[in-house]
């Protein structure tokens, strides 16, 4: 490819709307252009990288036993109604009607579609296991698209679905995909961690996010400083905090005027926050009231809360009327005296507290000397882990301190079990001729998001620093002054030699100033730059620069190609 023919309109200034490095640099490097909010056109450089990412994914999916298919983007409502998600998925689903008034959606994901496909074809356990995947556009009507490809309304995803006859088989498929994802992100040259994650709207059992470590990431990750435990902050397990033993004092109501916050309560009673019990009230999407109680110096993890309420998909802050109807008092709420048909969740750490303070469900009144093991109605509460992890919390596996870092979720693997197969009647006949539901898993990678994550992790003040495996071109040959025939001819010879050696190479033959070309090379981030100037023409000395390290080498014409190939091996 010649740069004189390449459509890569680079920019010197950063667009005002681009907030993070990947968005800014893809714009400036002539890789993407905005079509509408959350919708982008991939220009040739970006598309070359996308295709390289897809090829790595395909190779690893095929090696793990996956078979590629292509399903329609347009999905009939009937499949989603069978699974129960047509009404439950929410406003992110883009819904349309055809000319006959029938409901369809633009696929945000394909669990329903693949389940419907397989249920009509697979009849026997002899046809299992089965793994089918596609690489295709998905559509989600994000409330606030932002950060370029990180949160967009149209995006490319690889989604694979596994079908097995039992849980053991599903776990084997999960392990194959876990290993395949590890290979994929390793081959791309990215620093990543598989972290335990919540399944969210997909549902099912356990899950891991494959997270590319980057400061701009939206995911908060708890990483053990000693063992290999890592989990998203939504999923991170926390063991109950033990409290020193105390003699239990009698439960007592006290007047606490105006103390409707933990801070005000601590100041008024002269007690530390870790001796108080904080209440947070929610309502689900079905208007069920949920009261969560945690230690005053801790924060509620809303994902853990919602996972305790069967059928709940969303939470919002509770209305005062709902709280009062359950026997609570906003600002002065506690578990004692709440009506028994209310969802009352108590963090396990709270149950270890002694002589604590909590609301008395009366205005300006609290209980003190609360001993939850003695004073709470254990038949009316659910005791569980509700806490949000924070830096320094002990690892649930080894007890070492957890460190908080940030990352970008590029892929996720899920076990689904029989969530979709039971709902949609996808069954097979087992060895005894008995009908059984298929046991499923699903596995996704955001292709464009992975490209953006790679840039977030690999950039500097000059521009992008691509890992070799996914760079739009591995090598760029720059004719310093393409107006001089001898330099351009020499550069063309080097370009041809690199191509014949199997390198993915670009020839910058533009009649631009050398400084413009060099700036573009650094901005776009080609791993290796081969510079052809007067020294090459006169002395057969070729300058080679490595983008990642900035190191510059001078090689002879006789050995430059071997040296470039050696340098690329480390990139």
TrEMBL record:
<comment type="function">
    <text>Catalyzes the attachment of proline to tRNA(Pro) in a two-step reaction: proline is first activated by ATP to form Pro-AMP and then transferred to the acceptor end of tRNA(Pro). As ProRS can inadvertently accommodate and process non-cognate amino acids such as alanine and cysteine, to avoid such errors it has two additional distinct editing activities against alanine. One activity is designated as 'pretransfer' editing and involves the tRNA(Pro)-independent hydrolysis of activated Ala-AMP.</text>
</comment>
<dbReference type="InterPro" id="IPR002316">
    <property type="entry name" value="Pro-tRNA-ligase_IIa"/>
</dbReference>
<dbReference type="Pfam" id="PF03129">
    <property type="entry name" value="HGTP_anticodon"/>
</dbReference>
<keyword id="KW-0963">Cytoplasm</keyword>
<dbReference type="InterPro" id="IPR044140">
    <property type="entry name" value="ProRS_anticodon_short"/>
</dbReference>
<keyword id="KW-0030">Aminoacyl-tRNA synthetase</keyword>
<keyword id="KW-0648">Protein biosynthesis</keyword>
<dbReference type="InterPro" id="IPR036754">
    <property type="entry name" value="YbaK/aa-tRNA-synt-asso_dom_sf"/>
</dbReference>
<dbReference type="InterPro" id="IPR002314">
    <property type="entry name" value="aa-tRNA-synt_IIb"/>
</dbReference>
<comment type="similarity">
    <text>Belongs to the class-II aminoacyl-tRNA synthetase family. ProS type 1 subfamily.</text>
</comment>
<dbReference type="GO" id="GO:0140096">
    <property type="term" value="F:catalytic activity, acting on a protein"/>
</dbReference>
<dbReference type="InterPro" id="IPR004154">
    <property type="entry name" value="Anticodon-bd"/>
</dbReference>
<dbReference type="InterPro" id="IPR033730">
    <property type="entry name" value="ProRS_core_prok"/>
</dbReference>
<dbReference type="GO" id="GO:0006433">
    <property type="term" value="P:prolyl-tRNA aminoacylation"/>
</dbReference>
<keyword id="KW-0436">Ligase</keyword>
<dbReference type="InterPro" id="IPR023717">
    <property type="entry name" value="Pro-tRNA-Synthase_IIa_type1"/>
</dbReference>
<dbReference type="GO" id="GO:0002161">
    <property type="term" value="F:aminoacyl-tRNA deacylase activity"/>
</dbReference>
<dbReference type="InterPro" id="IPR004500">
    <property type="entry name" value="Pro-tRNA-synth_IIa_bac-type"/>
</dbReference>
<dbReference type="Pfam" id="PF00587">
    <property type="entry name" value="tRNA-synt_2b"/>
</dbReference>
<comment type="subunit">
    <text>Homodimer.</text>
</comment>
<dbReference type="InterPro" id="IPR036621">
    <property type="entry name" value="Anticodon-bd_dom_sf"/>
</dbReference>
<dbReference type="InterPro" id="IPR050062">
    <property type="entry name" value="Pro-tRNA_synthetase"/>
</dbReference>
<dbReference type="GO" id="GO:0004827">
    <property type="term" value="F:proline-tRNA ligase activity"/>
</dbReference>
<dbReference type="InterPro" id="IPR007214">
    <property type="entry name" value="YbaK/aa-tRNA-synth-assoc-dom"/>
</dbReference>
<dbReference type="InterPro" id="IPR045864">
    <property type="entry name" value="aa-tRNA-synth_II/BPL/LPL"/>
</dbReference>
<keyword id="KW-0547">Nucleotide-binding</keyword>
<dbReference type="InterPro" id="IPR006195">
    <property type="entry name" value="aa-tRNA-synth_II"/>
</dbReference>
<feature type="domain" description="Aminoacyl-transfer RNA synthetases class-II family profile">
    <location>
        <begin position="38"/>
        <end position="467"/>
    </location>
</feature>
<protein>
    <recommendedName>
        <fullName>Proline--tRNA ligase</fullName>
        <ecNumber>6.1.1.15</ecNumber>
    </recommendedName>
</protein>
<dbReference type="Pfam" id="PF04073">
    <property type="entry name" value="tRNA_edit"/>
</dbReference>
<keyword id="KW-0067">ATP-binding</keyword>
<dbReference type="GO" id="GO:0016740">
    <property type="term" value="F:transferase activity"/>
</dbReference>
<dbReference type="GO" id="GO:0005829">
    <property type="term" value="C:cytosol"/>
</dbReference>
<dbReference type="GO" id="GO:0005524">
    <property type="term" value="F:ATP binding"/>
</dbReference>
């Amino acid at each position: 490819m010649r740069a004189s023919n390449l459509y890569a309109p680079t920019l010197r200034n950063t667009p005002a709307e681009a907030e993070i490095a990947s968005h800014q640099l893809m714009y400036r490097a002539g890789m993407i252009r905005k079509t509408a909010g959350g919708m982008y056109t991939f220009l040739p450089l970006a598309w070359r990288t996308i295709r390289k990412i897809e090829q790595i994914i395909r190779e690893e999916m095929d090696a793990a036993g996956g078979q590629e298919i292509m399903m329609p983007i347009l999905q009939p409502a009937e499949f989603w109604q069978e699974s129960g998600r047509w009404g439950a998925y929410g406003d992110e689903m883009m819904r349309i009607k055809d000319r006959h008034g029938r409901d369809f959606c633009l696929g945000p994901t394909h669990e329903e579609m693949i389940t419907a496909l397989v249920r009509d074809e697979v009849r026997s356990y002899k046809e299992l296991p089965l793994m089918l995947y596609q690489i295709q556009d998905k559509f989600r009507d994000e409330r606030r698209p932002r950060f370029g490809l990180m949160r967009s309304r149209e995006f490319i995803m690889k989604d694979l679905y596994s079908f097995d006859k039992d849980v053991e088989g599903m776990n084997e498929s999960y392990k194959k995909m876990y290993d395949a994802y590890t290979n994929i992100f390793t081959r791309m040259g990215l620093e990543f961690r598989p972290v335990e994650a919540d399944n969210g709207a997909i549902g099912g059992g356990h899950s891991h996010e494959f997270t590319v470590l980057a400061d701009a990431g939206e995911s908060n990750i708890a990483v053990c400083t000693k063992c290999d435990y890592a989990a998203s902050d939504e999923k991170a397990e926390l063991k109950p905090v033990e409290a020193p033993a105390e003699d239990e004092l009698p439960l007592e109501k006290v007047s606490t005027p105006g103390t409707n916050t933990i801070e005000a309560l601590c100041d008024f009673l002269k007690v530390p926050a870790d001796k108080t019990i904080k209440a947070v009230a929610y309502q689900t999407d079905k208007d069920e009231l949920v009261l969560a109680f945690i230690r005053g110096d801790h924060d509620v993890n809303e994902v853990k809360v919602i996972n305790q309420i069967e059928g709940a998909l969303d939470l919002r802050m509770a209305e005062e009327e709902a709280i009062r109807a359950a026997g609570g008092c906003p600002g002065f709420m506690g578990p004692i005296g709440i009506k028994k048909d209310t969802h009352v969740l108590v963090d396990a750490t709270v149950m270890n507290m002694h002589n604590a303070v909590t609301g008395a469900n009366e205005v300006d009144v609290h209980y003190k000397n609360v001993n939850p093991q003695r004073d709470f109605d254990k038949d009316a509460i659910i005791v569980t882990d509700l806490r949000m992890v924070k830096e320094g919390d002990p690892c649930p596996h080894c007890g070492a301190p957890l460190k908080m870092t940030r990352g970008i979720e590029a892929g996720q693997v899920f076990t689904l079990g029989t969530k979709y197969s039971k709902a949609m009647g996808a069954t097979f006949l087992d060895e005894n001729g008995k009908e059984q539901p298929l046991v499923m898993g699903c596995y996704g990678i955001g292709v464009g998001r992975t490209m953006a994550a790679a840039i977030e992790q690999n950039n500097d003040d000059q521009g992008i620093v691509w890992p070799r495996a996914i760079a739009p071109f591995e090598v760029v040959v720059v004719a310093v002054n393409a107006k001089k025939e001898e330099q351009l001819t020499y550069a063309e010879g080097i370009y041809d030699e690199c191509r014949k050696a199997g390198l993915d190479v670009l020839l910058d033959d533009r009649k631009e100033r050398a400084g413009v070309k060099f700036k573009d090379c650094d901005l776009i981030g080609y791993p290796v730059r081969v510079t052809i100037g007067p020294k090459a023409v006169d002395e057969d000395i070729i300058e080679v620069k490595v983008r990642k390290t900035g190191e510059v080498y001078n090689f002879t014409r006789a050995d430059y190609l071997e040296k470039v190939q050696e340098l690329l091996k480390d990139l």
